[in-house]
Specification:
There is one protein chain. With 143 residues, the protein is α+β, with helices and mostly antiparallel strands. The chain has helices spanning 11-30, 36-57, 122-132, and strands spanning 2-6, 59-64, 67-72, 75-76, 80-81, 85-91, 104-109, 113-117, 137-138. Strands 1, 2, 3, 4 and 5 form a 5-stranded antiparallel beta sheet that branches. Helix 1 (11-30) packs antiparallel against helix 2. The model has no long low-confidence stretch (mean pLDDT 89).
Length: 143
């Protein structure tokens, strides 16, 4: 049985990234300081921002057998063995992770490992994991 859960996306976070990337360029354009360096930097930033946007929109969490597979754009993370998951809890940690949303959950597995993700339907996601491993301490509740 394979179940896919798409990631929730905080477009506000994507707008913040856009502003950080392009504010200096917009200021230079307003000052009419267009030159070859500015054009090359602009093209580079557009490519990088496109890559980041792709990662935001193409993050998916797949439960396949006894493994949780995480794919963020072109990046594939090492699968998490569901029988090794100890706890699922809400997280407000802003650490870089395959979670393009501020509405995040933290998965603790193995001895000291953890992964922060942001499935759209976190309640259904947590329910699916706990059905496969009833020993998971599930702190995700609908409210």
């Amino acid at each position: 049985m394979t179940q896919k859960y798409s990631s929730k996306v905080s477009y506000g976070l994507l707008i913040v990234v856009f502003i950080v990337f392009f504010s200096p360029l917009i200021i230079n354009l307003i000052k009419n300081e267009i030159n070859l360096n500015l054009i090359l930097i602009s093209l580079s930033l557009i490519i990088i921002f496109g890559f980041i946007t792709h990662m935001f929109l193409k993050t998916v969490y797949t439960i396949e057998g006894n493994k949780l597979k995480i794919k963020c754009g072109f990046i594939t993370y090492k699968p998490i063995v569901i029988s090794e998951i100890r706890e699922i809890t809400k997280s407000s940690n802003i650490i870089s992770s395959p979670a393009p949303s501020f509405d995040r959950i933290e998965i603790k597995y193995g001895k000291f490992d953890e992964m922060i993700i942001s499935p759209k339907d976190k309640f259904e996601f947590a329910k699916c994991l706990t059905s496969l491993n009833p020993n998971i301490k599930n702190n995700i509740t609908e409210q």
